[in-house]
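Researcher: Please predict.
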Amino acid sequence: MTLLTVENYIDGAYAPAASGGWLTCEDPYAAAPWGRMPRSGPEDVDRAVAAARRAFTAGPWARMTAPQRGAQLHRIAEAIAAHAEELARIESRDNGKTYREMLGQLKRVPEWYRFYGGLCDKINGAVLPTEKPEMMNYTRYEPLGVIGMITPWNSPLMLLSWKLAPALAAGNVAVVKPSEYTSASALRFAEILTEEAGLPAGVLNVVTGLGAEAGAALTAHPDVAKVAFTGGIGGGRAAYMAAAANLRPASLELGGKSPNIIFADADLEQAARGVVSGIFGSGGQSCVAGSRALVHRSVHDALVARMAELTGKIRLGDPMEDSTDIGPVANRAQYDRIMTCIGWAKEDGATCVTGGAALADPKGGAALFVAPTIFTGVAPKDRIAQEEVFGPVLAVLPFDTEEEAIAIANDSAFGLGAGIWTRDVARVHRVAARIEAGTIWVNSYKGGSHISPFGGYKQSGIGREGGIEMIHDYLQVKSIWLNLAEEAPYPFPL
């Protein structure tokens, strides 16, 4: 079988790794390799950062005005929209998520570039009314420089765009190290943005490889002005420490163990549907998956029964088929992690209501499927209630009072998202104010917008993505003093 060969994208052209090494691109549904990509190292990262730095300091990108950058981002949006189906097919083949889901993401991605493109010429400095009448003081906002971006495998181009759109709008350049499991779409994306949307060469560079090799070299590079990372806590901590060693800022979007809190007065049918879709959508491979259901004891049994019934209707299979709700687990390492977590729950005495095991490929192949799983009888300190699974596993925990629900919800190292299900408006505001999470959904779960900030409390991350304020995370402010007096002021006579 001939494998498709993809290469690094540096300075507007494809290039192999300096070492000549390769990594395999695996198709999770076919359970077979379909391509290969460079196994890059520090030399490749050096080349990419140097290309980005040249683009930042010289050439057309460095000379673009803010309105011109805005027009460039709008051209990027149009190019992505034109290639949404192609890019969605690549992503589905790489990570096993349904084509329907990936296409939906790619159709929304252009909105990020349109939104931040519209902000390019609205970043204003100010003339400051200081106490010094002989001096004029004003500020400028300027880009940081080369942004090192580390992106995950679950929603590759969407999560890249959350970083890239505001970074470009601010005038920065980027070197991206995508997940070694899903690098193909980022490489094609860079080619489209450069060759079709007209992004100047070197502004966007993509270097593939392992986190401990290419990723570590990128986050520790002295010419990287900021690190923007999405992934697990271990990788995020390493990226943060590498950035700190160079006194560079970092934004981190990490994991979650998000609670869905269902009170007794909730619309139980809507709550059941919201919880099931919130954990089993994307096969649970989502940072905001609602992996804990906190259910008032008076409605616990009825809600669990309805959730189990809905779960039984979920269809697993070929991610390219419209009838499929969940594709296979994205890779062997994640599959093993999910099965380990299911084992923990059973060891700790939880009751498996449905699922709890691997499933055979519906078409008889070797794809990695895990049955959507619900556990009851879970205690707040159980491993299945504390550890992020990143798979289709729901832990159900009962509660009796509002105070108890809040305490259980906050009894986590994470704080990314939370859902509240109730008809009591006063309770909505009381509980939402006390939940330690960056995003709260009320009588719904998941959903977001480029207009709204997204990020986590505690170990779920540092910083936010989305919203007007986000562009300032990719800018630095400069204060300029101008003497208006006939003579320059001196601290002592000269």
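Model: The first strand starts at residue 4 and ends at 5.
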